[in-house]
Write a structure and sequence with these properties.
Elements: H1 3-13, H2 15-18, H3 26-33, E1 43-47, H4 53-61, E2 67-72, H5 75-84, E3 89-92, H6 98-104, E4 110-115, H7 119-124, H8 127-134, E5 135-146, H9 153-165, E6 166-171, E7 182-190
Parallel strand pairs: 1-2, 1-4, 2-3, 4-5
Antiparallel strand pairs: 5-7, 6-7
Length: 194
Amino acid sequence: MSDGRVLFQEFLRAPTRVATVTASSDALVAALLAPHRFGGAPVVVELGAGTGRVTDALQRRLGPAARHVAIEINPVLAGRLADRHPGVTVVAADAARLPAVLAEHGVERVDALVSLLPWSAYAAAPVPELAASVLAPSGTFTQVTLRGLHLLPPARRQRRDLRTAFGEVTGSATVWRNLPPARILIARSPRHSR
């Protein structure tokens, strides 16, 4: 069964957890990864891996010394992703468990953290604070956010929480070649890095 069909089925089963019916476009994936440096042996963590569009792109960019952990709350999507990428540590878990999941897998710090988490994840857990707590001081956190909805309370809360957890928060240009159009929030200088 195609990734698109599985994504749609899983969205129908749990729309607040899957939160999308379409996979991210190549343009959005490129914008999400552009702020990161992947040279050397980075530890890269992906939140909300879904069908693996970002996972695929990361695996093309990362060298053999890199460590890649993909966290996906939906066990069906996580299972498919693990089958397709045996070299990636795929964990079926809630992003709210981020520090515990990383500790369980022997990860002490993260150099790059990329997120496609929906607003419902931010409502359920302090995602920016969790991200800042696991990032290396020089690490970068990127988060996809939907364009045109920036004035809604969840979007305002997301930006406010990022500014509390990070010393530097910027945004990309709108990625129009995605359905729906989106932007990337880029956070650096974690205030709570361990």
